[in-house]
Fold this sequence. Notes:
By secondary structure, the chain is mainly α. The chain has helices at about 15-45, 50-55, 60-85, 90-125, 130-140, 145-160, 165-190, 190-215, 235-265, 270-280, 280-305, 310-335, 340, 350-365, 370-380, 385-410, 415-420, 420-445, 445-455.
Amino acid sequence: xxxxxxxxxxxxxxxxxxxxxxxxxLSNVLQVLFNMSDIAVVGQFAGPEALGAVGSTTILVSLxxxxxxxxxxxxxxxxxxxxxxxxxxQVSRTVHTSLLILAATGALLLAxxxxxTPALLQLLGTKEVLLGGAIRYLRLYLMGMxxxxxxxxxxxxxxxxxxxxxxLLFLSIAGVVNVLLNLFFVIVLHLAEQGVALASALxxxxxxxxxxxxxxxxxxxxxxxxxxxxxxxxxAREVLSLSLPAAFQNSIFALANLFIQSGVNTFDAVVVExxxxxxxxxxxIYDIMAAVYTACSSFMSQNYGAGLRRRVRNAxxxxxxxxxxxxxxxxxxxxAFGTTFLGLFTRDSGVVEAGLxxxxxxxxxxxxxxxxxxxxxxxxxxxxxxxxxxxxFLGSCVFRIxxxxxxxAYFHTIRSLYLLYIFSWTITGVAELIYxxxxxxxxxxxxxxxxxxxx
Length: 455
């Protein structure tokens, strides 16, 4: 079988990581734009109530999509590891097993989400005036979960092989279709929040179909073949051992944010709507940075599979510096042009003013998340996922809940609520770094040096 994937184990690291990351950044931004365009279209053409309804679901959308992205990251690491070791047979088994796992996961999330949508929104304290629209939006949006799961599977496999351009192309096509359908359903058919949800779901199925078609046409080990589509128990255990902790880790952030959203909901509707508009910046910047974390895991995993200790270490350091720099630049732009950014989602000056409070606090905080997230990605690249997840749970879930019921409860200002992000990121990041240094020494000590000399 001829090997066509791109090796990540040779050549200068820094430019390779940048080239690898840029298409992923654009792909991640397009995924964010699915939900962001929903909010922009309803905010501009359906009014503030529809904006609040869609915005009230953002945390739950992040909960479900974050879970699927985490599942995909585990697939990425295992495929990259076997590619680095040039084990084509295990690559193929991992790919076919992972497709079945991700498809089943997407279907399960759809079923659970559909049943528990009203209860979850009520648990968040969603305003009564927004509740009906929020339920209608979220249930229709969840119809796209199986497709989103399949796309994240394909994106993980392709990026593990060094191909980040095709996922970008597929999402570009789906993104254009999503925006056009948004405008058609809302302006022409007057469907408001239901229209934008339906547009997003249909676009997800388009991107999933394109990624499956691409993999089915590939002759190498990462290619899909119907006769090989079966569950390999050993590969399933390997993938799930990485994917489930990563998925729960992503969900932990969303779970903690449920308590933050409950705090936001104690303020008036203007603050809730301003928070919903400004929160779009979170997804935008996080997902741009997440492209670097994917690169970090992919490069570290392939080079770890090949036994190249120095490249493993340097991949982490370069990725950390790049993600910190990206966050710093985008944060400055966000603070400088916050009013313009918020104007994409609302024309209400009161909502813009409320949104600016969040943008200014978060703009000075985003870069501090790089240490935490990049180090987690590095540990995952070395095959460790459980301990980083436990650390995240304590530092970014338990800590945030405590903050909400102590610091925020005492001051009860919106700024005191937003400040918990920078404190939780810093504490968790330091703890993740301590664990990663221990893991690195254990897995890439003397044996790693000897393997590198032999290579």
